[in-house]
Each structure stands twice: as structure tokens, then as C-alpha cells.
Amino acid sequence: MADQEYFQAIADAVVDGDTEQAVDAVLAALNAGLDPLQILNVGLMSGAEEVGQRFERGEYFLPELMMTGRALKAAMEIVKPALLEKYSDGDSQVKGRVVAATVQTDIHDIGKNIVASMMTAAGFEVTDMGVDVPIKSIIDKAEEIGAQIISLSALLTTSMPFMKDLIDLLVARGIRSKYVVLVGGASVTEDWARAIGADGTARNAAEAVKLARTKMNA
Ligand code: B12
């Protein structure tokens, strides 16, 4: 079977919201020796993207989104150990402290979780605050644990403005320069990140880790 066929099978299972099929397809791809990052980016995320488009076109509704969410989560549990093994950092030195959260009004957590896991594997100490987290709580936690990085996820265009509000609040409190603020999620772009005064964004978890390392010179 060609690599592309494995990725297609994974994407198709995600589009069908078929958990069992998604898990089987990811296992088959891993057993065939395919790169776990490609499985995430080319297989799982393109399936998620297609589901999103069908939802926008009115062909899919909330139940389909939920089934896809379930399939993605189960598949992610299979691909995660392989990702962590491949991308973890051998040296045990802590690279920095990170507060990660999905901002208020947004409950999407699959991308945030994988970013948090991969940062942990890369040697960052990550405090994951979960989803729908008020910006003030995120800042308070960052202050409390002495974080250097604030990692924000948002998938809804209506939740993205809270990223800007958080940065504005840091500025208002005179502590903006203490933090590297990274933003991400399906609708977040480089332009948006720049416009709100964030320190950067990345398309996927491996790039997010690279960015965090660059910012920390680690
Ligand atoms: C699954 C899903 C759901 C599930 C989520 C389950 C869960 N536990 O997370 C459920 C069913 C709950 C859901 C609900 C809704 N959803 Co939804 N959902 C999706 C879907 C199909 C996949 C999301 C996903 O998990 N992708 C896979 C992960 C791995 O990708 P990711 O999150 O983007 O993360 C990667 C990168 O972005 C990056 N990254 C992530 N975070 C960070 C952080 C930093 C710092 C960095 C650098 C990088 C980074 O790395 C990650 C890994 O590589 C998307 C479509 C899409 N295109 O993404 C719609 C989508 C996000 N949903 C959408 C909508 C509209 C909704 C609802 C409003 C629907 C409704 N009418 O109720 C609700 C909102 C609920 C809420 N208040 O949050 C829209 C948003 C549209 C918009 N532009 O605002 C989308 C885009 C679909 C669409 N095209 O219309 N959804």
C-alpha cells in the first residue's frame, strides 16, 4: 500500500466519525513505519479539515462533529506515544515553564493536548489548565508558577479575540515582557498572531515545540 493510501484511510475514518476504523487505520500506518507526525498532519488533520468544511456547507451537523471529535481523540491516543518517542528530547534539563490553555468560550482540546504533550516530551514543564479558561486565570497561573511561556489555543473565530485581550491585559499590568505568548488553532494565522502582538504561531504541534525552543534558546 502506498503511503498516501494509509493517510487517506485515516482521513476517511475521521470524516466518517468511525472511531474503530480510525484507530485501526492509524495502527496500520504506524506498523507500516510511517512517520507519526505525518499521520497527524496528513491523515488526522486533513480529515478534521474536511469535516469542518462539510459542517460549513451544511452537509454535517453537530452530531457528526462530535463523532469526529471522538474518533480524533481515540486515534490521537494511539499516535501520541509514537510521536513522543520520536520527538522527545534525551536531555533532562528543564527548557522552561509553560501555561497551556484553550481560551474562554472554546472547548476544543485535541490540538491543545497534543501541543502540551509534545512540549512536555521536549523538556518543558507544562501546566495544562484545560478548556474554556478565563484569560485572567491564565495570567494568574503564569504569575504563580513563574512561567516563561503562555501557550493559547482557540479554534473558534469568536474565541480568538480573547487571545488579544490576554495580551492587552499583560500590557496593562506591565508584565508583557515577562512572557512569550504563543497562539494556535485551526483558524489562527501568522498575520493574526502578528496583529494581536503575540510572539508567534505554528501550524502543528511539532512546529509549536520548535518555536518554543527557539524563543527560549533551548
Ligand atoms: C472535532 C471538532 C469539534 C468537537 C471538539 C471535541 C474536542 N474535545 O476538542 C466538538 C463537537 C465539541 C466541537 C464543537 C463545536 N465546534 Co468544532 N470542530 C471540530 C473539528 C472538526 C476538528 C478540531 C480538531 O480537533 N482538529 C484536530 C487538532 C489536532 O487540530 P487543531 O486543534 O487545529 O490543533 C493543531 C494546530 O492548530 C496546532 N495548535 C493547536 N493549539 C496550538 C497552540 C499553539 C500555541 C500553537 C503554536 C499551535 C497550536 O497544533 C495542533 C496539533 O498539530 C474542527 C474543524 C477543523 N478544521 O479543525 C471544527 C471547528 C473548529 N468547529 C467549529 C464550530 C463552529 C463548532 C461549534 C460552534 C459547533 C456548534 N454549532 O455547536 C462548537 C463549539 C463548541 C465550543 N464552545 O467550543 C468550527 C469553527 C468555525 C470558526 N471559524 O469559528 C470548525 C472550524 C468547523 C468549521 N469549519 O466550521 N467541534
Oligomer: single chain
Overall mean confidence score, pLDDT: 96
Cα shape: globular
Low-confidence stretches: none
How many strand units? Answer: 5
Structural domain count: 2
* Helicity range: 55-70%
What fold name stands as the CATH topology of the largest domain?
Rossmann fold
- Largest sheet, described in full? 5 strands, parallel
How much strand content do the residues show? 5-15%
CATH class of the largest domain: Alpha Beta
What is the CATH superfamily classification of the largest domain?
A: Cobalamin-binding domain
Bound molecules: cobalamin
Structural summary, described in words:
- The protein is of the alpha/beta class.
- The chain folds into 2 domains: 3-87, Orthogonal Bundle (Methyltransferase, Methionine Synthase (B12-binding Domains), Chain A, domain 1), CATH 1.10.1240; 96-216, Cobalamin-binding domain (Rossmann fold).
- It is built from 9 helices and 5 strands, in the order ααααβαβαβαβαβα.
- It has a 5-stranded parallel sheet, with helices on both faces.
- Helix 1 (3-16) crosses helix 3 (36-56).
- It is globular and about 55 Å long.
- The termini are far apart.
- The structure holds cobalamin (B12).
- Cobalamin (B12) binds at residues 40, 45, 48-49, 51-52, 55-56, 62, 65-66, 68-69, 72, 105-112, 114-115, 151-153, 155-158, 182-187, 201-202, 204-205, 208.
- Residues 40, 45, 48-49, 51-52, 55-56, 62, 65-66, 68-69, 72, 105-112, 114-115, 151-153, 155-158, 182-187, 201-202, 204-205, 208 line the site of cobalamin.
